[in-house]
Each structure stands twice: as structure tokens, then as C-alpha cells.
Amino acid sequence: MKITAEQIAEVLNGTVVGDSTVEVFKLAKIEEGEQGAITFLSNAKYNNYLYTTKASIVIVNKTFQPLQPVKATMIQVEDSYKAFTKILEYANQIKLMKSGIEQPSVISEGVSYGTDLYLGSFSYIGKNTKIGDNVKIYPNSFVGDNVVIGDDTILFAGARIYSETIIGKKCVIHSGTIIGSDGFGFAPNTDGTYDKIPQIGNVVIEDHVEIGSCTTIDRATLGSTIIRKGVKLDNQIQIAHNVEVGEHTVIASQTGVAGSTKIGKNCIIGGQVGIVGHITIGDNVRIQAQSGVGKSIKDGEIIQGSPAMAYNDFSKSYVYFRKLPNIVKDVEELKKIKDKENLS
């Protein structure tokens, strides 16, 4: 779909400098711009590309003053980075604007769904599932019985949603993600074997949640595993049974959260973090990458290390740790001097 500079400026509340009728139909980096592409400039390191790019339109900040003539049409906005993000969102919406039910696919008895459903081929919808308006379920997806999916939610190809899961509005579930699989519950026997503990709870995902590819969220033993509104989970994360993740918390890839742990709101958790079960992590906590968290954390703390400790303490300790060989050498030298003094 082609769109003119004038139309884009209206969407972005910007000002056109150059040909307002020029049309674009694709997006590009400024250094890779081609005719018919729109790009943006926000980082001063890329200023020189503005004068050489072949892109038809460049979004720039209103405060930017070019030092030489610019061939491309410019659209001046308050924040070029945010403006280009808005264009990306718009382009993505157009790309995902699918509807209809492809075959072969299965819609079981008792299923209800709203307007503009897209159901990709080789997908399965279980009994009594309720699906809202404008939901997109891409090919090879599985949705179990008694699931609820809110309006404007997207399930990308190969997502697996187990029975009784509740997913809110405007959520995005990426490919290969599994929601509602059994929690890891086993009771040991005296002979060394284990009996499986039935996991009869569910998973509740509130509105505006995005979950990356190949992430697993286990159903609760009893009650619910809960992902609160606005949470963003990266790829390849493990959320165990009965965990609760607070509003607008962000968790990076390869993090694992053990059962029944409660994570507060507005937390930022780095990649490859391990969190034990049955603890509480407060609001606004920052956990640095590769930390091992073995105890509860108070609101607003920043921690690092394994076992994790206060970030400032870790930084100071790490300085000494790096110097440990020299410290040991100095101690040994002092010991030798003391031994000589004792002999004399």
C-alpha cells in the first residue's frame, strides 16, 4: 500500500519539508534507504546518511538543522524515533489485517467468536472456548477447551493454549509458546519413585501482555498462575505453577521463576536470572542478568550476583574479587615477613 508524505505528516502531526506528494510503500534503515522507502533520523551518528540516503522520505526532529541540501522529503516531528515507531505499528497492523477461517481447521462444539476472526489452517479450537472480536490465530495453533481469549489478541503460528486458560485483550502470544501446561509437582516415595500431583488450576493472562517465542507458563496446582496487565516476557522464559507477575514487569530471556513466587509491579529482570520458589519480590525491583535470587526482595532494591546481593555491594565486592590473586600474594608475603620476625 502506498502512502504520501502529506498523509504521513497528518498521522504524525508533522510538517513536510519538500515534495508532499511523494509516495512510499516500504520501511528502511537510513543507510539502506531506497526509492519508495521511508526512514528516520534520531541519532547524530547517522547524520551524514541524511545527505546520501536514497529513501524518499526521512522523519527528523523539528530541532534538527541540516548542514547541506537534502534530496529526500523530510517530515519534521517532535520525536522522530517515537514517530517512526508509530509508523512501524501502523505497517504491522496492515500486515496482520487478516480475517476468515482457513481450512483444514477445527472449531469444536460450543465455541463462540466475535467479528473478524482469523483462524489459520491446521489450527484447533476446543469445546466451549470463547473468542473476542478481531482475534488472530495463526496456522498450526492449538487452543484447548473452555479457554477465553479477549478482543484484539494475536496467537502466532504454533502457539499452544491449554484448557481453562484466560487471556485478556490486546495480548500477543508468539510462536512456540505454551500456556497452561502442567506445573512441576511430584511427591517422593520411600522407594525413590515419584507420584505426580494433579495440576488442576489454570493460567490467567491480563490485558496488554506480550509473551515471546518458546516461553512456558505452567498452570497452577490449585487456583491460578497470574500474569498481570502490561507484562512483557521475552523468549524462552519458564514461569512455574502459581507464580504471579505484577503489572508492567519486564523479564528478559532464559529467566526461570520457580513455583508460588510473587513478583511485584514495574520490575525489570535481566536475562538468565534464576528465582527460587515461595518468595516475594517487591515493586520496582531491578535484578541484573545472571543473578541467582534465593530470598525475598524489598521494594525498589537493585541486586546482582549469585547468590544475589545488593547491586552496590556486589560492585564493590567484584573489585576485590578481581584483585584476589594479588591480595592472596600480598598476604603470603606478609606471612613470610612475620615468620622471619618470629624466628629472629
Automatic annotation (TrEMBL):
Its EC number is 2.3.1.191. Keywords: Acyltransferase, Lipid A biosynthesis, Lipid biosynthesis, Lipid metabolism, Repeat, Transferase. Pathway: Bacterial outer membrane biogenesis; LPS lipid A biosynthesis. It comes from the Bacteria. Coiled coil: none annotated. GO terms for molecular function: UDP-3-O-[(3R)-3-hydroxyacyl]-glucosamine N-acyltransferase activity. Residues 22-89 form the UDP-3-O-[3-hydroxymyristoyl] glucosamine N-acyltransferase non-repeat region domain. The keyword Transferase applies. InterPro entries: Hexapep, LpxD, Trimer_LpxA-like_sf, UDP_GlcNAc_AcTrfase_non-rep. Homotrimer. Belongs to the transferase hexapeptide repeat family. LpxD subfamily. Catalyzes the N-acylation of UDP-3-O-acylglucosamine using 3-hydroxyacyl-ACP as the acyl donor. Is involved in the biosynthesis of lipid A, a phosphorylated glycolipid that anchors the lipopolysaccharide to the outer membrane of the cell. This is UDP-3-O-acylglucosamine N-acyltransferase. It comes from Paenimyroides aestuarii.
